[in-house]
Structure formats: C-alpha cells, structure tokens
Amino acid sequence: MIRPTLVFDLDGTLAHTAPDILGTLDHILAREGLPLLPHEDAIGLAGAGARALLKRAFAVSNMPLPDARLDSLFEDYLAHYETRIAERSHLFPGAENALETLSADGHILAVCTNKTERLAAVLLDKLNVAHHFKAICGRDSFAFQKPDARHLTETIMKAGGLTHHAITIGDTRTDIDTARNAKLPVIGVRFGYSDTPIDALAPDVLIDHFDELRAAVTALSQTTAR
Length: 226
Hints:
alpha/beta
C-alpha cells in the first residue's frame, strides 16, 4: 500500500520559531528608532514572513515604507535572522517522535513553507530533523507561493510523492487554503500562530499535540486513496 505523502508547514506547525522571528523584528525596529511591536500583536504574522511583519510594524508607527526601503529592510532582516535562527526556536513537543514514527510507517515527508528555502533548510538542520524530509521547499523554490496550490503540488512531486495522494499539516488560513486549492485534506494544529481561531477555519482534522498526528493521518489516509 502506498501511504500518502505528508507535507508540513514549518513556522507554527513543526517548530515554535516566533521568539527568533520576533526578536529579529525587535532588532530592526530598534535600529530604525521605531517602537517595538508587542509580540502578542505580532505573533499572528510570525508565519506570514518578514515583509508582513515589517509592514505591520511601520503601519502601527504611521511611518511610510516605500517598496525600495522595504526590500532593503527585508534583506537586513534575513541577514540578522540567520545569525539567531535557532537561538530560541525549538520543535513543538512530540514533533520529532512523530516524524520518526511516520517515516518508519513508510510515509514520504516534505516541508512547504513561505520561509526561504535556504533558511528553512538551515533551521531544520539546526533542529536535527532535516534528514526526515525528501523535499524542503520555500517561497523562492518555485515561481509561486502558498496559498497557490502549485507550491504544494510541486513540493509533493519534488519529494517523489503523488499529488493526489497527500495530506498537509499546518496552522493558519494560508495552509488550509493551500490544501483546499490543491483539493487535498489538511490537518490543523491548535498550537500554532493563526490569527483566526483555527477551529473556525474547518480543517479536516484538528490536533492539540503531535502525539495525535499518527491517528489523524490514519483517519485521513482513506480519503486520499484513488
């Protein structure tokens, strides 16, 4: 039996990365002489990327942010973030064991994130789980990004899986919309960074801990078979 490919989001799904993402934002804002954005107000954007965070912070301060300036700050952000990418970030409880178990069960595992591909690979390597994934694809891996279905389907193909026989795991509307656009089932995690209660987004299955993931995958596997 061919088991479905499992495609994970990264920030807020596999790993709690907000401390280093928002810590980098603090560094940039302090350097620019702007007030820091309270982390409780920004965590919902932690998985949306640095550009979204920078735009939010400048908007809150009523500061203009022309595209050229945003591009420059974005590059500064990425450079600083890489120096601290796993300083405080860590896998969510049970994630490593779930990856090991699902790999042993015969699932192909992949990551589809709106992080850049290189930074995603660096982070997963530092967290000692990169070896579990047949493909690690980021916002710059293809000519399109989530929620475009092709970001997900191309990731599945790169991993060697079947695009009609896969399950996605994520924490935000973007992840759920991507799965819906690809006509694939999606497992939502309640411990992530969604700025909308994820229950309201109606993923196919919801989990509160990675210990529940294997059972959720088993329950959805029949729906992916064709």
